[in-house]
């Protein structure tokens, strides 16, 4: 394989997926370890490490990428089904049922997309409330992956503020 593996692998029932140091996504067979496909991803920087974060659900692989993009790939072929601009720097996406949730790093926005179509379900602009003069102008930067508990999507920013939103807020469910 071309380049070191520098991300945590994700897997489905048939395949293991990872991104190498060139930010290419690779799929291998879980049983045979046979190489299945490689999907080259755009590369903006030469940072010497993978800057792609992955999640999987059913037949879709989700890739949050350093180019400010969120990609949905066909898990069997590696072909891109849809892509959305989400803001730099992205964290690992979170898959919740039929939606993928992505937290942008330097642009403090939490978004939900339909896994199949890529349509935006909802978004939360998380502008931090300034508590002191030395924090004035500071934004709530997300450097961690959101999580879910009891239908509530939870994300924390670098300032220690915790945000929560109903995972089904825009779908009318829940």
Describe what this molecule looks like in 3D:
It is built from no helices and 15 strands. It has strands at residues 10-11, 15-19, 25-29, 35-39, 52-57, 60-65, 69-74, 80-85, 94-96, 99-103, 109-114, 120-125, 147-149, 152-156, 162-166. The chain has a four-stranded antiparallel sheet with strand order 1-2-3-4, with no helix packed on it. Strands 5-6-7-8 form a four-stranded antiparallel sheet, with no helix packed on it. The chain has a four-stranded antiparallel sheet with strand order 9-10-11-12, with no helix packed on it.
Please tally the β strands and state the result: 15
Order of helices and strands: EEEEEEEEEEEEEEE
Total of DSSP H or I helical runs spanning 4+ residues: 0
So what's the overall shape? globular
In terms of topology, how is this protein built?
Blueprint: E1 10-11, E2 15-19, E3 25-29, E4 35-39, E5 52-57, E6 60-65, E7 69-74, E8 80-85, E9 94-96, E10 99-103, E11 109-114, E12 120-125, E13 147-149, E14 152-156, E15 162-166
Antiparallel strand pairs: 1-2, 2-3, 3-4, 5-6, 6-7, 7-8, 9-10, 10-11, 11-12, 13-14, 14-15
Task: Please give a handful of descriptors for the protein shown.
174 residues; mainly beta; 4-stranded antiparallel β-sheet
Compact overview of the structure:
The protein has 174 residues and is an all-beta fold.
């Amino acid at each position: 394989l071309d380049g070191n593996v520098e991300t945590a692998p994700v897997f489905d029932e048939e395949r293991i997926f990872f991104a190498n140091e060139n930010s290419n996504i690779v799929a291998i067979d879980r049983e045979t370890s046979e190489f299945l496909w490689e999907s080259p991803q755009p590369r903006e920087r030469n940072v010497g490490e993978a800057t792609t974060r992955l999640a999987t659900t059913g037949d879709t692989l989700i890739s949050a990428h350093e180019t400010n993009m969120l990609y949905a790939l066909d898990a069997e072929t590696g072909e891109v089904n849809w892509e959305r601009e989400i803001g730099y720097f992205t964290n690992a996406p979170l898959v919740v049922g039929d939606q993928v949730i992505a937290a942008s790093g330097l642009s403090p926005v939490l978004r939900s997309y339909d896994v199949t179509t890529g349509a935006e379900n909802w978004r939360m602009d998380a502008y931090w409330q300034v508590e002191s003069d030395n924090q004035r102008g500071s934004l709530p930067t997300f450097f961690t992956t959101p999580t879910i508990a009891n239908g509530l999507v939870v994300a924390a920013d670098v300032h220690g503020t915790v945000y929560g939103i109903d995972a089904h807020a825009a779908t009318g469910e829940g």
